[in-house]
Write a structure and sequence with these properties.
CATH architecture of the largest domain: 2-Layer Sandwich
Shape: elongated
Order of helices and strands: EHEHEHEHEHEEHEHEEEEE
Strand content: 25-35%
Helix content: 25-40%
Pathway: Cofactor biosynthesis; adenosylcobalamin biosynthesis
Enzyme class: transferase
Organism: Bradyrhizobium campsiandrae
Domain Tetrapyrrole methylase: 4-212
Number of strands: 13
Number of domains: 2
EC number: 2.1.1.131
Radius of gyration: 19 Å
């Protein structure tokens, strides 16, 4: 097998936030696979084949990438943000687990700036102390698991970064998540809604959890719920490094 497979993170949206290592991998690629909007961020050029696909075809995409690399291609699978955070790196290794013939294939995972970290930087430092990330999509796990993790994170006083809060196919989930956190006694915590981070239509808004409304988020929004000590300083939001 003379090809390679690279799993790369394109960052939150702005090309300036794509790492040089990822840019070099894209420049050397013969094939690029990914969810169609992410593949569209890569400029066509001679010698490069783009393979866009639907967002629920992760395992098929991973299997196709392994096959193309085994046939000699310099293959790159792209994700937004970081490929290891709710993205394609895990899908590739899941596909590899069921395809032992590809286990000697050279594979690299190239990190990217996550939506969570980009959003936190825009707001200030809401993740300045212990935090966790929870994906609110119930496509791959039951809602009961999401609710349990939200309650445990609230009880542990973590700041919480919430991915995929509200989609057209499941508009009620984010409202349920807000209710769970309110029931857990988090109503006074600060919540930052970071939409389209690093894009021209970026919007950052911080309110208390009691003031938060489900319609304030969509699938382009990263939501950060502070811990009990997260506070404002001017227009900024930060979580102190010291537990009081």
């Amino acid at each position: 097998m003379t090809g390679t497979l690279t799993i790369a993170g394109l960052g939150p949206g702005n090309d300036a936030l794509v790492t040089p290592e990822v840019s070099a991998a894209l420049a050397a690629a013969t094939d690029i696979l990914g969810y169609a909007p992410y593949v569209a961020r890569v400029a066509p050029r001679p010698g490069l084949t783009l393979h866009p696909s639907d967002n629920r075809e992760e395992l098929q995409r991973a299997a196709e990438a392994l096959r193309l690399a085994a046939e000699g291609g310099q293959v790159v699978i792209v994700s937004s943000g970081d490929p290891g955070v709710f993205a394609m790196a895990a899908a590739v290794f899941e596909a590899l687990e069921g395809a032992p013939q590809y286990r000697d294939l050279p594979i690299r995972v190239l990190p990217g700036i996550t939506a969570m970290l980009a959003a936190a930087a825009c707001a200030g430092a809401p993740l300045g102390h212990d935090f966790c990330a929870i994906n609110l999509s119930d496509n791959l796990k039951p809602w009961a698991v999401i609710e349990k993790r939200l309650r445990l994170a609230a009880d542990a006083d973590f700041a919480i970064a919430m991915y995929n809060p509200r989609s057209a196919s499941r508009p009620g989930g984010f409202g349920r998540a807000l209710s769970v956190l309110k029931e857990a006694g988090c109503g006074a915590r600060l919540v930052t809604f970071a939409r389209a981070v690093s894009a021209v239509d970026e919007r950052i808004e911080t309110v208390t959890l009691n003031e938060a409304r489900p319609e304030m988020a969509d699938m382009r929004t990263l939501v950060i719920v502070g811990n009990s000590q997260t506070r404002r300083v001017g227009r900024w939001v930060y979580t102190p490094r010291r537990v009081l």
